Amino acid sequence: MKTTPALLLVLILLLGVFPVHAAGTITVNTVIDQIADDGQCSLREAVIAANTDTATGGCPAGSGADTIVFDPSLPSPATFTLILTGANEDASASGDLDLSGSLTIQGGDASRIILDGSGADRVFDIRPGATVTISGVTVQNGDPGSGAGGGGIIVRGVAPGAKLTLLNSIITNNRAPLGGGIYSDGNGATVLIQDAQILANTAQTSGGGIANSGNLTLLNSLLAQNQAKSGGGIEHFGFSLKLTNSTISGNRASDNGGGLYNRGDTLILNVTFSGNTASGPGTGGNIFQDTASLAIKNSIVANSDADGNCAVNEGFLTSQGNNLDSGSTCGFNASGDRSNTDPLLGPLQNNGGFTSTHALLPGSPAIDAGNNAGCPTADQRGLPRPADGDLNGTAVCDMGAYEAQVVSSSVTPSVTPPPTETSTPSPQPPTLTPSSPPPVITPTFTPAPPTPTPPPAAPCAAAAMLLALLAFFFRRMG
Questions:
Q1: How far, CA to CA in Å, does 252 sit from each of 220, 235, 241, 256, 264?
Q2: DSSP assignment of 292-334
Q3: Does the pLDDT of residue 15 top 90, yes or no?
Q4: What does the alpha-carbon distance between residue 55 and residue 70 come to, in Å, rounded to a whole number?
Q5: Considering 139, 159, 199, 384, which has the largest number of Cβ atoms within 10 A of its Cβ?
Q6: Are 431 and 295 in contact (CB under 8 A)?
Q7: Across the chain, what does the average pLDDT equal?
Q8: Could you read off the pLDDT of 238-284 as tens digits, one per residue?
Q9: Is 353 left (phi over 0), alpha (psi -120 to 50) or beta?
Q10: What is the pLDDT of residues 304-313, one digit of tens each?
Q11: Residue 461 — pLDDT band, cuts 50, 70, 90?
Q12: 57 within 8 A of 45, measured Cβ to Cβ
């Protein structure tokens, strides 16, 4: 058979439509931190195989946007302790796990898959240009040492900036000079955290739970018992911060901003701040507004005792309405605001869902006291908003992260299903300017979970179609 130019053109077009390589799945089947040709696939080897598309140890070669999963036969819980120590290398050969390219790590259950930095280094370094989704894991005991940020995870903002989606995970007992749990490091770093618990992390300077100088969106999550010099829960000093349906509770700053120290443009919707503390009167036990603009709506700021719930140094802390201050330091004076009002919060505990919350006790003035305009469609636990919590026949959004439900034996708390794990974060910076008060929050403010990306066509199906088309053209060409 003669190969004609027309046939060659068809072959080229077909090869373009049906790529040879497809995303791969790499299964980790040992908890040992090693690089060895022993037929077993360690987590470190899986990361290297995914980063380089090269078979490593007992792991098959990655191929494009890979997914790392964990063998069900592993112990439960399975603790992966990083013991191959080393510094100043970014290829995962030692120290922390350096993630590059497009990668998904699916743990499945944060109580079962535990990633431990052993106090020798942080756990994950998400390199410039990487797009990473991590779900269903616990990240603990990370410590990058002096002069470094991100005890558990660092997301690099050096161009091209890295992107992280963190789902249904726990970040706990990590330490760093900056960003004890997570550090979103600079313009271009984009982080979406949903249904996560950031617990008991420590920073020597800023951001006990999270330090953010990039673009951070926090949804349906809990920050509790973190501590730092400033910003015990979060210190935001970068580009954009959006907090929705989240609880910030019991965090501690030895200077200012027990819950949040804010130096960048911030939007807060249906958030509960409770019992965060700083260093005394005027230091902002729950919120310290230093510079830039902070807009807050449908939220509770309460129970910081002598430190005062809020302190404003410069910039703007602007109520967009329907907020509650248990004292009188936040300056809430918009429609629906309440000051010197006890919200009647229950203790921080499991009230359903993946994360703990402060329930609104019967008779709480925060019940049905929010604004339905812009109210999220579910609360932190995944239960529907708005609900008719006071049983007056009208469903109105509650203040804070918790929505009181109609008392019924049919109501069972459940977790909102997380986004498909191939999704990537897409939060946008707010359109705020430090020189003027922030705009009113509109219904479009509510961040939505990322839209799942359809999976690529199966390689075998594509190959079969290619063979069929080739056979057809061979027959036609004689």
A1: 21, 12, 20, 9, 20
A2: SEEEEES-EEE--GGG-SEEE-SSEEEE-S--EESSS-S---S
A3: no
A4: 17
A5: 139
A6: no
A7: 86
A8: 899 999 999 999 999 999 999 999 999 999 999 999 999 999 999 99
A9: left
A10: 988 999 999 9
A11: very low
A12: yes
For the cut 70, the answer to whether the pLDDT of residue 93 exceeds it is yes
Residue carrying the six token digits 């907090």: 243
DSSP 67: E
Beta-carbon contacts of residue 12 (< 8 Å; ≥ 6 apart): none
Q: 100-133: string of b/e by CB count within 10 Å (b at 16+)?
A: bbbbbbbbeebebbbbbbeebbbbbbbbbbbbbb
Residue 185 has pLDDT above 50, yes or no: yes
Identify the bridge partners of residue 339 per DSSP, sorted by sequence position.
Answer: 325
213-to-143, 147, 248 alpha-carbon distances in Å: 20, 16, 19
What is the value of pTM for the model shown? Answer: 0.84
Q: What is the CA radius of gyration of the chain?
A: 25
Given the DSSP bridges, would you call strands 170-172 and 197-199 parallel, antiparallel or unpaired? parallel
3-state secondary structure of 50: helix
- Contact indicator for 355, 220 with CB cutoff of 8 Å: yes
Locus of tokens 């006071």: 390
Asked if 124 contacts 96 with a C-beta cutoff of 8 angstroms, the reply is yes
Q: Which helix (H) or strand (E) holds 465?
A: helix 459-477
- In terms of DSSP bridges, do strands 234-236 and 293-297 run parallel, antiparallel, or are they unpaired? unpaired
Q: What are phi and psi of 466, to 5 degrees?
A: -60, -45
Question: How much helix, strand and coil, in percent to the nearest 5, is found in the chain?
Answer: 10, 30, 60
Residue 135 tokens read as 């779900």
pLDDT band at 18 (very low <50, low <70, confident <90, very high): very low
Regarding beta strands 345-349 and 357-360, do their DSSP bridges make them parallel or antiparallel, or are they unpaired?
A: antiparallel
The H helix count followed by the E strand count for the chain is 3, 37
Q: Which of 321, 348, 351, 353 is nearest to 334 (CA)?
A: 321
Q: Which two tokens stand for residue 167?
A: 């789902």
Whether residue 164 has pLDDT greater than 90: yes
pLDDT tens string 289-324: 999 999 999 999 999 988 999 999 989 999 999 999
pLDDT tens by residue, 430-451: 333 333 333 333 333 333 333 3
What's the CA gap between 105 and 112, in Å, rounded? Answer: 14
Residue 69 β-bridge partners:
27
Say if strands 78-81 and 113-116 run parallel, antiparallel, or are unpaired. Answer: parallel
Q: Is 131 left (phi over 0), alpha (psi -120 to 50) or beta?
A: beta
pLDDT value at position 427?
A: 36
> How far is C-alpha 12 from the geometric centre of its chain's CA atoms?
42
